[in-house]
Task: inverse folding
């Protein structure tokens, strides 16, 4: 029952977000275009509900010659690929804002497990153990407020499973406000290095 209510909440809040944030989107679009060559938006194939695939949207933070479908931590010297504007966007998590559209059209939810890259087979398989691939992926989730990039795959999948087992309005509220705190403190974000799990 709550999943139906959750979808209504997603549509309501994402529609408001698209309207209210549209002037801010325009400012970021102009800044990205002035900063580097290439499209404003970055599209990447991700794993959605029941392991279907969809294209996640982000503001582009990396140069157009960056290797595709490669998590940042697997790149050699990832800093060389990140644009000046991209550093700001990634630091503030503003690069994730276009996913409001993914939420509006039903490919994502505001709260849920972060969608894996289509080729992150180890994470996908681990999430299968906890049925974490059988709910809509989210803009943020339980794992994101409990470690984000620092988490090993096994721990991240287990936390995603905890969310699935306890999915409720109260759980989503905890994740929502916990995310605000994490973003402000920039907890658990790692750019490059062997422990980083952030994708481009």
Result:
């Amino acid at each position: 029952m709550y999943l139906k209510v959750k979808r209504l909440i997603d549509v309501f809040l994402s529609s408001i977000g698209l309207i209210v944030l549209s002037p801010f989107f325009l400012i970021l679009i102009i800044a990205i275009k002035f900063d580097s060559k290439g499209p404003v938006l970055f599209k990447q194939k991700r794993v959605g509900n029941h392991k279907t695939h969809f294209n996640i949207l982000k503001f582009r933070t990396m140069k157009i010659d960056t290797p595709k479908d490669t998590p940042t931590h697997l790149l050699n010297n990832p800093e060389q690929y990140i644009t000046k504007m991209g550093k700001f966007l990634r630091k503030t998590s503003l690069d994730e804002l276009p996913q409001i559209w993914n939420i509006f059209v039903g490919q994502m939810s505001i709260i849920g497990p972060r969608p894996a890259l289509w080729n992150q087979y180890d994470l996908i398989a681990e999430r299968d153990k906890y049925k974490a691939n059988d709910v809509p992926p989210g803009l943020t989730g339980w794992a994101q407020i409990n470690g984000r990039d620092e988490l090993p795959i096994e721990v991240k999948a287990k936390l995603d499973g905890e969310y699935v087992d306890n999915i409720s309005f109260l759980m989503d509220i905890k994740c929502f406000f916990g995310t605000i705190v994490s973003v402000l403190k920039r907890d658990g974000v790692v750019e490059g290095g062997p422990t980083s799990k952030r994708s481009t």
The longest strand covers residues 41-47.
